[in-house]
Amino acid sequence: MNLILLGGPGAGKGTQAKLIVEEYKIPQISTGDMLRDAVKQGTELGKKAKEYMDKGELVPDEIVIGIVRDRLKQPDCEKGFILDGFPRTIAQAEALDKMLDEIGKKIDAVINIYVPEEEIVKRIVNRRTCKKCGAIYHLIYSPPKEPDKCDKCGGELYQRDDDKEETVRERLRVYKEQTEPLIEYYKKKGILYNVDGTKDINGVFEEIKGVLSKLS
Q1: pLDDT at 192 (0 to 100)
Q2: What is the Cα–Cα distance from 138 to 205, expressed in whole angstroms?
Q3: What is the model's pTM?
Q4: Active site residues
Q5: Does 162 reside within a domain?
């Protein structure tokens, strides 16, 4: 079962990926983690990627695809995998199709976790993090007992720069421009499944399991 998870920032992809990993025993493949790993191990592709990363530039698609190819050849991917954070663009999706074809694999389903834009903004902008212990709160869904104070260690709560509205709206703009076209791309291939990301974590996972039960 080879899957791609799609969804805007704050849609809950990471949480659902972990649940899928536990339930179906297939690895979650995060391109960010793989790039850092390839750099750490000093592989040929890792060295090339490091040159771009050191300059603060995006790593070119062909290098990312090469690293994904190496990862998918590992024994733990034999029964399937979840691609998380890749592809992000149509060009990457086309390169991924070509590479999978070459190694005799294909994507079985693309799960798009849909959450309306304003709900995403509400989810992220209201997050607060403890400066001391890193605990995360939400001013609407899981507020601290005392304002701006961590229940666990009494540390000060703050809003990360990533969680500020201006940053969130910019991330959503980039997502709409670059990644949203993938929804139509995979819809045309007949492998796109939309799930309602506004439900609670278990509700979303039940929907995903319903989709995956049709594949197996």
Answers
A1: 97
A2: 21
A3: 0.86
A4: 13, 88, 127, 160, 171
A5: no
